[in-house]
Amino acid sequence: MRRDQNSRPGIPTGPLHRGDRRLLAIASAAGCLALYGGWRLFWFLTDDAFIAFRYISNAHLGHGYVWNAPPFLPVEGYTSFLWTFLLDVVWRATGVEPPDSVNGISLLFACGTLTLAGRMLLQLPWSERLRPSKAAFLGLLYAYLLLNRTFLAWSSSGLETAMFNFLVLLWASAMLFPPYGPRRLALAGGAAAALALTRPDGLLYGALTAAAVLLVAAGAADRRAARRLLVAGLAPLSVVVVHQVWRLAFYGAWLPNTYYAKVSGAWPQSGVRYLWSFTLEYALWAAAAVAGWALVAGLRRGALRAALPAGRAGLAARAPQWAGALALLLHFGYYTFVVGGDHFEFRVYSHLLPLIFLGVTWCLIRLDLSPRAALAAAGAVLLLSLPLPWTHWALTRNLQTRAETHVLRMPVAPSWPAPVRWYAASFDRAQAWLIPHHVGMRHQEHKIFWKTQLGYYPTREQGLSLGTTRIPTIGLPCVGVPSWTMPHVNIIDTLGLNDYVIARTPMPRGLDMMAHSRRPPAGYLDSYQPNVLYDGKVWFVRERTPPLTAARIAELERSWRERADAGALQPETSGPLSR
Question: Taking the model in full, what pTM does it have?
Answer without folding.
Answer: 0.94
